[in-house]
Structure formats: C-alpha cells, structure tokens
Amino acid sequence: MGLVAGRKHITRGLRFTLTMGYTIVFTILLLGISLVFRQRLASSLDDQAHVDLNRNSTIVRGNLRLYHAPEEKYGYQPDWFLDPHDPEENRIKADVQNVEIVADANGNVLEESKAYQSLGADSVAHIRSVLNSNQPVWLERRDPKGVLYLIRQFWVESDDHKKFFVAIGLSLAHNQALLTQFTWVILGLIPLVILTGGLTGWVFAGRALSPVIEIAQAAQRITGSKLSLRIPSRGAGDELDYLIETFNQMIERLEINFNQVRQFSTDVSHELRTPITIIRGQLEVALFTAQTAEQYRDAIVNSLSDIERLSQIVRALLLLSQAETGQVALQKQSLDLVELTSETADQFQIPAEGADLKLTFSANCNKCLGYFDRVQIERMLSNLLSNAIKFTPAGGRVEVSLKREGNDAEIQVKDSGQGISPEHLPHIFDRFYRVRSSDSPEQGLGLGLSFVAWIARAHGGSVDVQSELGKGTTFRIALPLHASSGPEIAQESPSELMKQV
Prior knowledge:
Layout: H1 2-11, H2 14-63, E1 64-68, E2 76-80, H3 87-97, E3 100-103, E4 109-112, H4 114-117, H5 124-131, E5 137-142, E6 148-157, E7 163-171, H6 173-221, H7 239-289, H8 293-324, E8 329-330, E9 332-336, H9 337-347, H10 349-354, E10 358-363, E11 369-373, H11 374-390, E12 397-405, E13 408-415, H12 448-458, E14 462-468, E15 472-480, E16 488-489, H13 494-497
Parallel strand pairs: 10-12
Antiparallel strand pairs: 1-2, 3-4, 3-7, 5-6, 6-7, 8-16, 9-11, 12-13, 13-15, 14-15
C-alpha cells in the first residue's frame, strides 16, 4: 500500500506533470519531423526515378530506329544506333533494355526484356491509347516477387512515320530498401531519444522546482515565533525570484500583523486592568473604611467614572469588529459639510482653550451639500481634532478648513504640533498602531485613525497625512459629493481595514 501510495503521489506531482508534458510534446515533434523527413526522402527518390526514366526516354528517341523489314514476322525491325565498341554506350543500352518493350499498334511485340515480361502484358486498347496520346503515361507495377517498378510509356515513329509503342521501366527496389532502412532506424532511435529526453526533462524539472521546494520547506519552518525567516533570492530575476520576493513580503506583512496583535493584546490588558484595579480598590476601601453615606457615594461616583472608561474601550472594540464584518450601516442623509464641520470644530473650542491653543475654521464656500452619515463624519472629525489638540504644545494652533473642488470636498485638519516621524507615517492608519511620545505619555488604543480611514473609505473617499517633525501634521480627507439615498452597509474586510491609506 505504501509503495502504491508513493507512486500515486509521484504521478500527481508537478515534476512528473512537467516531465510528461515535455516528453509528449518532444515525442510528437520528433515523430512529425521524422515523418516529414521520410516523406521528403521518398519524394526525392521518386523524383530521381522520374528523371532517370526521362533521360532514358530521350536516349530511346534519339537512338532507336524502326525500319521496314518484310522478312520479319511483323514487317518491322528495331535497330539501335549506338557504337558497339563504346563501353559507355553499351552500358546505357543495357540499362535502357533492362526493362523495355517495343510493340506495334496491334500489340505485336518487336522487342521485350524478361523483366518487363514479368510485369504483365499491356492490352491492345491500352497500347493504342498511348499511341494516340501526346503525353507519356506513368505506371507502377509489381513483378511476381513483389518488386515495384516505375514505368514510362510513350511512342516513337518509324522511318515511314508509323507509330510504335515503347515502354521502359526502372526497379524501385533500391528506393524501397532505403525507405525501409530509414524507417527502422527512426523506429529504433525514437524510443532511445524519448527515454533520454524524458530523463533529461526529469532532471531539469527537478532543478527548476528546487526553489519551490525550498519555499515550501521554509513555510513549514515558519511559526508565530519564527516570522523573521526569509528565503534568499536566487538573483536570476525570473518568475521564481518574483515568487520568493512575494513570499517574503507576505511573511513580512504577517510579522507586522502578529506584532500588532501582540501589542494590542498587551495594550488592551493594560487598559482594562487599570480601571478594573482602580474600581476594585475604591470599592474595597469603601467596603472596609466608609462609615457615612457621603463616603459611599464618593466611592460609587469614582467607580462609575472608571466604569465609563471601560465602556468606551469595549464600545470602540465592538464598533471596530462590526466595521470589519460589514455590519455598520451608514445612515446617509443630505448634509451640509460646512455646517457639520463648523459645529464639530466649535465643540472643541473649550478643550483647545484649556490647552492654550488657537482653533480656527475656514471654508471656501457657503454650502457643501452631499449625502453622509452624520454620526460617522462627526466621529471622524472628532478623532482628528482630539489628536491635534492632544499632540500640539501650548501656544500652538489647530486649523480646520474645507474647500469644494467640483464634485469632491476636501477637509483639512492642520496643527503646529510635534509632528510624526517618517518611519511611522506608512503605518499611522493601521489598527492598534500607536506613536509613543515622551511629551504625551497618555496613550489610547491606537484605533482612532483606523476609524478615520475606515469612515473615509466607507463614504467612497480617502485620507492621507503629511507631517514633519517639529512643524506639525496635516490630515486631508477627500469625500465625494455624489447623491445617494438609504442606508448602505460598509463592507470592510479585516484585511481591507488593515491596508495603508
């Protein structure tokens, strides 16, 4: 069973498939080439046979004379005008007369070789049709031994202009033997060549697939604690190098995501542990030391404040989960972005003044109508403004502006704060990503800007950021103003929410 399973596995492998495909194509190509060469050889031999018979026919017409001889049985006698003492002319005559017949219109044979006689007699009707034709007649016949002959039939005139039937032939045994020999050589070489080609294809397929096997082995070694493994590039710049590069990029993204999840787990544990510890401590103190209703009341009020913080954390996580699974329905309605942005900025005037900051709003139009979800747009603006106030030192400024360009609206939130380092900018919208700063030790969960990016995309828009250390940060949100009605489900997958904007 193990051996059969192993064979089954081999026959299903990519290496076997490539080798078989290569071998089949190579076999078909080799057979095609062999058939073409055999056909060309047969055609060449046939053409040569026709050339030889045409040459012999010319010799017959130029050297055979038929004169009237009353003493002969049929009244005519063939005579060859060749020098009997010339070996070359004697050889030519013997070659022509090897397969030859000369007959009159009634089928009376004046001269015939034994070889032609073995091919069978020509009928009188056939002889007369040749005599009446202006073109030679080509035939193929076999003798009793199966030897194939090519025959050329034509006519010649006697001295008194009477037509006589002449046929000369050429044995094709040598041609057939040559074709047969060629066929057997091909049939003998093809299996050897196919076997050699198959083995060569197997070796090269194995070498070509070795990087793929290395990738698979590397993937098996990668675990949550070994995401730093990378496959070195081969330096060939081919498809396999592209696969290796893509695989390494995927592992790099996984490593970043795993680190973010670990960091998120640590942050959430800390964020949840602190208020729970405080609530528990306050309640324990009240339970063991409080003696009056006022003391119990103070403990409950403080506990409720920390419980509210817990609720905010849980609500943020729940909303993020709903956004990831496409369960957040955008309740769009016709809104004036100028009015909505201005009202949201007014809500942050008091926190801005408390932080000794100057908060301003400006717009290049009186109205900017579109279909938006009021709650989500307010949440987006609130996240940006709260971050701007939190990370801008006293005496600075926060500027909110809105401008309309065609069918799009652009909202800018610009501050003169500490700025963001370049290495943080590509990840600023990632979930749970937080830029830690000694100037602002209080850190959130790193979800605010992820919500900003999600809300912008859910409305068909986009968001980007520009920042320079020591000079401040500018967030730009582009929102389309196209008409829409009714609730829309914001279909955002977890991977989409994690993409960079």
